[in-house]
Amino acid sequence: MTEPAPPEWGASSSLGCGRRLLRFLGELFQTALIALLLFLAVNLITARIRVEGISMEPSLHDGQFVVVNRLAYRWQEVERGDIIVFHFPPDPNRRFIKRAIGLPGDVVSVRDGQVYINGLSLTEPYLTDEPLYHGEWRLMPSEVFVLGDNRNNSSDSQNWGPLPVVEIIGKAVLVYWPLDTVGLIPHYDLVGAAGE
Predict the structure, then answer these.
(1) Could you tell me the residue range of the domain that residue 152 belongs to?
(2) Is there a catalytic annotation at residue 98?
């Protein structure tokens, strides 16, 4: 006994082309939908920023592109030494990248070329020059104090005051461009240095 021929056999060739076209368009739609969902998920979780200027040298350089973890501070607090991206308080349309030095409730002072947190000297191995300015700032429970690593060439909290925590976008975690500088951004544990 012979088996019946598949339904496509004997059908007109235009119907077969029509089904193939519909199948192709359906798969194309599914692929585009998955790509869109992945794109949206990545953009909800991360941000990308271009480092502009020399304020974070020697840690980060002008023209580097950095990935920012937007979720880093959803379940934990900013840590001393984190490099963070935030909306610049005087102009919220601009994004800045700086290092978190003072945490909520701290007293930050700069004198004799040294940064002090609550009266204790902070050890900062990433600096090449000591700050040439001085001052003291008392942080409210909803503020952090940020400084550029290039202390004497940075617009930061020593110029415009403490940063409200609500302005923080996330934590800088990875340099992805240029290719010869790709890598994780090192975190320096400054906790012990501040006597915590």
Answers:
(1) 47-194
(2) yes
Residue 86's CATH number: 2.10.109.10
Count of domains forming the chain = 1
What residues are paired with 86 via a beta bridge? 96, 168
Please state, in angstroms and rounded to a whole number, the distance separating the CA atoms of residues 187 and 50. 19
Does 37 fall in a domain?
no
Residue of 59, 98, 154, 171 marked catalytic: 98
CB atoms within 10 A of CB 88: 15
Give 116-148 pLDDT, tens digit per residue: 999 999 989 999 899 999 999 999 999 999 999
Catalytic-residue membership of 171: no
Could you tell me if residue 137 is inside a domain? yes
Residue 165 tokens read as 């925590």
What is the reported pLDDT for 5? 57
Question: What is the token pair recorded at 110?
Answer: 């700069």
> CA-based angle 153:158:159, to the nearest 5?
75
Q: Is residue 10 part of a domain?
A: no
- Say whether pLDDT at 44 is over 90: no
Query: Is residue 19 one of the residues assigned to a domain?
Result: no
Choose among 56, 58, 37, 39: nearest CA to 172.
56
Give this prediction's pTM: 0.81
* The one catalytic residue among 12, 14, 55, 157: 55
